[in-house]
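If I may wish for something, please sit down with the protein I am sending here and say whether tokens and residues agree:
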Amino acid sequence: MSIQIISNDNSHFACSKYGRGWAGPDGDRLTLALALLKQLPADQIDLNSFDEQLEFASSVSVQEIIEASTDWTVQEGASMNLHTHHEGYVVAVTESKEVPIWPDFTSIDYSLEMQEELENQWKTEVVGVSQGAYVSQAQHMISSSSRLGLVAQNDNGRSIWPPRQLNSDGERIDSATTKLSETATILTWTRLSAAGAPSEFSGRAPILDGVTTVLVAFEEGPKGVFMLADDEKGTPEIDAKVGFEIRRLYGQDNMVHYGLKAILAKS
């Protein structure tokens, strides 16, 4: 788990390992909230003004992302409420609608120069247009629930993911209904150099000294390629396990596209 959690009675707070000052290279208040919600028993939650306090707009609504990637449902007037600190990268789930008293969190050392470079790059990237595999907002929204929730289609007993309209025989496949495992096995991996990264990530790759991707296999059969996150102190190995978290993927058209990234499982 890449977040710190503090729970007091029926109030739960989450912060990144970097502390209040930063949510990491591909994190923000929304990714922290999603990680926290996945650690708590599912319930209904009211967003209050949470989505209005996010740094960037998302190509999919906050409600859709929460309901696609967690077991929580969003409802106005729900018993639980989602809050975010208006200055620091801290989020909370509480029973009260009142702004909570925010606890202190520890933090690990990180490069303030890298943080500034990445934050500036995200701002530049979001207002631009991807020169790589352009995905329209409509396309992104159509498949978001299956992609973010790891929900596969059933094609005559075979699990298909990511979702598609037709199988190899040209026959239409039913909607996605099969939940894949939350872990997968690394088949192979590669480290893309700063110069060799796809254009969607070419601005951030030099700052991060390259981008690592992994090809993984799920127990149910599907395979997929994911970017690796939180791997500063770890190196992927074939047959190792990964989990998944939602992070920022890239920005375009004044919005951020969120998606799953692989996280090396702790041995």
